[in-house]
Write a structure and sequence with these properties.
- The complex is a heterodimer of chains A (276) and B (297).
- Chain A has 276 residues and is an all-alpha fold.
- In chain A, 79% of the residues lie in helices and 0% in strands.
- Chain A has 14 helices and no strands.
- Chain B has one domain: MetI-like (MetI-like fold).
- In chain B, helix 1 packs across helix 13 and helix 12 runs antiparallel to helix 13.
- Classes of the chains: A mainly alpha (276), B mainly alpha (297).
């Protein structure tokens, strides 16, 4: 019986595999290239490297300054994720459950940021940061990214808190919980899946952010990974192993998080959108 | 709305204390800069120290006859074909081919199909530059291997082929997303609707048209908004693959904003382009969402 199901589904697997291969082949080719020598690269794009040499990674990491880029990306991303998830929890809680005069006007005002491209803010933002002497600092990369993340985070957390069981809130009030305790002791533990989704999405958007870091940073050692890789590409575009190794350093952490939390990623990007 | 009631003895403004930190950062670093961009678009402003001159709508008037702006905008709309229309068609086709029976191992396929969505566009751009490389790239090597040498070309350096080549990267990024979205939606369609259609003598295509499509309305709306916005916002990918070239053949509005503001010091003009771009994204998203919710009603 099982065998017959498998046979009936065979065309489905052929179709899925075909379209999966179109996505995977470029990525696999890139991974192979990172371990090749220059000579091997020209031999065959999809040929296996003769041995697992790590020279390209070493070159990218030290001479290519990816050690700096990596450190900057980690610092910016960790701070943005922690700060914006905490702030979004507070704003979402306020919109969903607290007395808030002006909510009808404030909610759309905040959500506006969700649709706005960075191009619409980047010019005044650069001048503001320049006047405050904050270009080439983490502040210039963190603060605007938090502002943008809070916009989506508010939407996300508000819809979570709106769905919170009413009885729980009432019971907490009767038990003499205050608002702060209700949030952190009772609702926050329940919010784990919603918060985790918000964490991985914010992580991805911040890790991959390009224009903000491109404009705000002039100093090479302050670049984030995507900007570092883009400049790297300008300088070494003919050196494929080096470019591939650099790309893998940029993609590695996000790939790892994606493989561990893929359900949250996909649910967040599909489900959140469908619900809204 | 009762759930937002005040508790006894509680301040009327309780919510404001929780809202304030997040709202303040958003206002200072996102909302006020949007307003500044709009204001700057009415000025002529050529340098970082230079004085601004109020010129009303001149920047916008200039856009109307500006070849590079028209080129950029046209390219954004051409990208809608590659980022939205083709991926949505591929997604619909595959979703209907695969049908509604749960497939074993789907998690694996879904994880793979979704993969381009999570990658930095810079990484995607670097990968595809390698594929399009004229001498040892995957595409030209493959074409030569099957004897189609005449089709090989420097894809990203070719005036005719650069735009569709960059567009194809967009298709590659988006089609898995559309597939996964539609497949998930199809699992939710009640079986009896298909049975009823079959009783009415509807064939596979009619079933798709009258049962599948209307039931995927929400997913289609999401797919359209997401992909169209992505097409209108393209920046990273063009920056890494072509910088708008050769000539201005792959210029897009996002890159035009960057180039005129930070390389040519035309800040008023760049602000006007950014404003048009933002309004366009807003209007198109609202139209799609409105259209979707009206159909639902």
């Amino acid at each position: 019986m099982r065998r017959r199901t498998w046979q009936r589904q065979l065309p489905n697997y052929v179709i899925l595999t075909l379209f999966l291969l179109i996505i995977l082949i470029p990525i696999v080719g890139l991974v192979f290239s990172a371990f090749k020598t220059d000579a091997e690269v020209t031999k065959g794009p999809l040929a296996l490297p003769s041995q697992l040499r790590l020279d390209a990674f070493k070159d990218a990491w030290t001479t290519g300054r990816f050690n700096f880029f990596f450190r900057n990306s980690v610092i910016v991303t960790v701070v943005v994720v922690i700060v914006s998830v905490l702030l979004s929890t507070l704003t979402g809680y306020a919109f969903a459950l607290l007395p808030l005069p002006g909510r009808k006007f404030l909610y759309p005002l905040l959500l506006l940021g969700y649709m706005v491209p960075f191009e619409a803010v980047i010019i005044p933002l650069y001048h503001m940061m320049n006047q405050m002497d904050l270009t080439d600092t983490y502040w210039a990369l963190i603060l605007p990214q938090v502002g943008l993340s809070v916009s989506f985070g508010t939407l996300w957390m508000t819809s979570f808190f709106r769905a919170a069981p009413r009885e729980l809130v009432d019971a907490a009030a009767i038990d003499g919980c205050n608002r702060w305790q209700l949030l952190w002791r009772i609702l926050w533990p329940l919010a784990r899946p919603a918060v985790l989704t918000l964490v991985v999405l914010t992580f991805m958007w911040t890790w991959n952010e390009f224009l903000l870091a491109l404009v705000m940073v002039q100093k090479e050692t302050m670049r984030t990974l995507p900007v570092g890789l883009a400049f790297f590409q300008g300088r070494y575009s003919a050196n494929i192993p080096l470019m591939a190794a650099g790309s893998l350093i940029v993609a590695g952490p996000i790939l790892l998080v994606y493989i561990i939390f893929q359900r949250y990623f996909i649910r967040g990007m599909l489900g959140g959108a469908v619900k809204g | 709305m009762k759930i937002q009631q005040r508790w006894p003895g509680e301040s009327r403004f309780k919510g404001w204390f929780y809202l304030l930190p997040g709202l303040a950062i958003y206002l200072v670093f996102i909302f006020f800069p949007i307003l500044s961009t709009i204001r700057n678009s009415f000025y002529k402003w050529n340098g970082f120290s230079g004085t601004r001159e109020f010129i009303q709508l001149d920047n916008y008037a200039r856009l109307l006859g500006d070849a590079q702006f028209i080129k950029a905008l046209t390219n954004n709309f051409i990208f809608i074909i590659f980022y939205s229309i083709i991926p949505i068609l591929i997604g619909l086709m595959l979703a209907s081919l695969l049908g509604r029976k749960p497939i074993r191992g789907m998690t694996f396929f879904r994880t793979g199909l979704f993969l381009p969505q999570i990658l930095s566009m810079v990484v995607v751009g670097v990968t595809w530059r390698w594929i399009f490389n004229p001498t040892f790239g995957l595409l030209n090597t493959g074409l030569r291997a099957v004897g189609l040498d005449s089709l090989t070309r420097p894809w990203l350096g070719d005036f005719q082929m650069a735009l569709p080549s960059v567009g194809a990267i967009g298709t590659w990024v988006m089609y898995g997303f559309c597939m996964v979205l539609f497949l998930a939606g199809m699992q939710r369609i009640p079986e009896d609707q298909y049975e009823a259609a079959q009783l009415d003598g509807a064939g596979g295509f009619r079933q798709f048209l009258h049962v599948t499509l209307p039931n995927l309305r929400a997913e289609l709306g999401v797919a359209l908004v997401t992909t169209v916005i992505a097409a209108l916002r393209v920046f990273d990918l063009v920056y890494v693959t072509t910088r708008g070239g050769p000539g201005d053949s792959t210029l897009v509005t996002g890159f035009l904003v960057y180039r005129s503001a930070f390389q040519q010091n035309q800040l008023g003009y760049a602000s006007a382009v950014a404003t048009v771009m933002t309004i366009l994204i807003f209007v198109i998203s609202l139209v799609i969402l409105r259209f979707q919710s009206r159909q639902e009603a």
